[in-house]
Amino acid sequence: MELDKISNLPSGVTQQILSFLPIREVVRTSILSSNWRHKWAMLRHLVFDDRCVSDSNGRMTKKTFENIVDHVLLVHSGPIDTFRVSSRNFRVPSCIDTWVLHLLRNSNSIKEFILKPKGNGSPYNISSCLFLCPDLTHLKLYTCLLKPPTTFKGFPRLKSLNIKKVNVKRDVLEKVIVSCPLLERMTLCDLIGLIHLNINSPNLQFLKVGGDLQGFVTFILGNSPNLVGLKVTGFRGVKAEVDSLKVLLLRSPSLQELEVSFGQKKSMMRLDDSRNCTSTQLRVLKITGFSGGVKDEIDFIRFLLLKFTCPREDDSSTYFCQCFLGTTENVGRF
């Protein structure tokens, strides 16, 4: 009798195999053998996306999508580390509150929560239950209204925060940030209703601010001495943005990588301010969306290059400063 090689695989191996499969394929593994019948129900990483199931035309109905999530959560046993709901076809499911409540009641150890629905439509008011998950380390929210309950004490273990197209008030977001003492990475894109933001995050290492910055023009690091990477996209060069960037550079003594991506609409100001904005730690300066044909653009880039002092190649450091431009046209004009 031939030995069944898949029935007696170690639990860690089977969980690793299942983690690489779409959820619909994970469920189908229950027919492999009697030992595999319930293994999928103990999967620690649950990812529900457009690959879940489709009809005869290759499309999936919203109701079918919701039924799949309901069924998996109903039969699931054990802890859940990752819960991700993302779709390019559907807005936020109406039963998301029920799912979050289930996670809180049955798997209070949830570490990664990702909600990424279809981009258009009204923002969804995220369930207050989400703010009661103390073990969250990664949080990604798209197209929602961020309004924690008054009892919110913070995420003591959160290391990564990514929010996009989120409607949030300044004081609320500042409170969330300061209540995450271990925060290392943060992405803020296309935020709604923000004009100013003061970021106080002592352990923050990487920050990305981008999208439509027309309504979000001033971001200041109040206390982030460990910031080593900064990326600003949708930059237009208006005075408020330039002043904000100057202050940010002054307050980032450990900054090593800076990336500035110009938006489609540029309104560059003249940069005749000679205040010291030097950084002796910068290793990489990357500029994209640079047309090279506008004098103010060139002046702005010259300003950045002159304001940063990079280590010489003969220094003890093995690093050197690199400058990447989005186009090679007009480089000679520097």
TrEMBL record:
A Pfam family per the record: F-box
PROSITE patterns: FBOX
CDD domains linked to this entry: F-box_AtFBL13-like
Annotated F-box domain residues: 3-51
Name under which the protein is recorded: F-box domain-containing protein
Organism listed in the record: Rubus argutus
Superkingdom, natural source: Eukaryota
InterPro entries: F-box-like_dom_sf, F-box_AtFBL13-like, F-box_dom, LRR_dom_sf, LRR_FXL15/At3g58940/PEG3-like
